[in-house]
Structures are given as structure tokens and as C-alpha cells.
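Design request, C-alpha cells follow.
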């Protein structure tokens, strides 16, 4: 099954790359406070829809968490499937504002990670810097939406700002 999925993913990436509208990259986040330190990494692949301001992407987020005594809070990395749709609001020279309609789906199947099961869906604004024709850096700094996964905090509607530790992504555009 894994071989079939990998073959399909590579075929899909090859088809999209032929149109030169595909990009690969990922993001890394770090959140450190007095009680808990979290680190996440999320490789992504995306496709810019030609002649529009829309982009679709799929990411796979893995998260590692420690408590203040530097002991392991979770037994291993937690995994989340993270697709999103991006709308580019405006571009000014090498900078652009965007809004992501994003979702995170927790994929834990153990009782220890029961708070990692569930989902959250919402809007995530950000700023992109097109450093060169091929390289782009993106910063996401808030989340507005609905949370049905205890891992991300209180369940229900949320508004959170991460201005002290924004999400940072680096992407290569083909």
C-alpha cells in the first residue's frame, strides 16, 4: 500500500511539475514558554492554479513536545495531516499578503495520544517574501477558527496570535 501511495504521489508531482506551477518546501514552528516547549516540522507540496490568486497544498506536520523539566510529554512525534488553500490578497514588489484556509487532522491511534485525535479548521493570515524567482519565505502569525482537538487548546472557536513565535516556511518554486 505504501508503494502504491508513493508511486501515485510521485506521478502527481511529475504531472504538476511539467506545468511549472508546483512548489515544495515546508515550515517549522517553535513555541517555548515556562511550562512546555514544542517544535514542529511540516514538509509541504503545493500547486499554484494558473492565472488566479489561488494555491492548494498538502502538508504532513510532526510535533515534538517537552515539559519544563525536559522530560518527554509524549512518547514520540505526533502526526497531523494538514491540507490548505491559499488566497493571495495582494502583492507589493517582493512581498505579499495571503490568507490560508487550513485544517489539521490528528492521526494518533493510541490512548496515550487521545488528545491528538480530532481536527481544527480555520483561517491563518500570513506574509510572503519572494526572495528570488525560485525561493519564497512565508510567515504565518495567527489562527482564527474552530478547534475539535484538545492538543491545540480549548475546544470550540478560537482566536490566537503567535506574533512572538510565528510559523516560518521556506519554499522552492519550480
Amino acid at each position: 500500500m505504501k508503494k502504491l501511495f508513493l508511486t501515485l504521489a510521485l506521478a502527481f508531482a511529475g504531472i504538476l511539475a511539467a506545468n511549472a506551477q508546483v512548489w515544495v518546501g515546508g515550515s517549522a514552528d517553535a513555541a517555548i514558554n515556562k511550562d512546555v516547549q514544542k517544535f514542529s516540522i511540516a514538509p509541504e507540496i503545493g500547486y499554484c492554479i494558473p492565472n488566479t490568486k489561488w494555491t492548494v497544498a498538502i502538508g504532513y506536520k510532526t510535533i515534538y513536545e517537552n515539559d519544563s523539566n525536559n522530560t518527554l510529554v509524549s512518547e514520540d512525534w505526533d502526526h497531523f495531516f494538514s491540507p490548505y488553500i491559499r488566497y493571495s490578497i495582494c502583492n507589493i514588489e517582493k512581498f505579499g499578503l495571503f490568507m490560508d484556509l487550513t485544517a489539521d487532522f490528528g492521526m494518533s491511534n493510541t490512548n496515550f495520544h487521545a488528545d491528538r485525535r480530532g481536527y481544527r479548521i480555520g483561517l491563518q493570515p500570513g506574509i510572503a517574501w519572494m526572495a528570488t524567482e525560485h525561493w519564497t519565505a512565508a510567515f504565518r502569525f495567527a489562527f482564527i477558527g474552530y478547534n475539535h482537538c484538545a492538543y491545540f487548546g480549548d475546544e470550540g472557536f478560537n482566536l490566537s496570535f503567535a506574533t512572538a513565535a510565528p510559523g516560518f516556511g521556506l519554499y522552492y518554486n519550480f
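Comment from the thread starter after seeing the answer: thanks! DSSP finds one helix and ten strands in the chain.
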